[in-house]
Amino acid sequence: ELSRLGASFGKPLAVAAETASTNDDARSAAAAGAPHGAAFLADAQTQGRGRGGRSWHSPPGENLYLSVVLRPSLPASRVAPIALVMGLAVASVIERRLAPLPSRGASADGSVVEVRLKWPNDVLAGGRKLAGILVEAQLRGESVSSVIVGVGLNVHASSFPPDLSARATSLAMLGIDDVPRELLAAELLQAIGDAAARFEAGELAPFAEDLARMDWLRGRRVEVAGVVGVAAGIDPEGHLLVRGADGILRAVAAGEVSVISS
Ligand code: BTN
Question: Could you report the per-residue pLDDT of 15-28, keeping only the tens digit for each?
Answer without folding.
Answer: 999 999 999 999 99
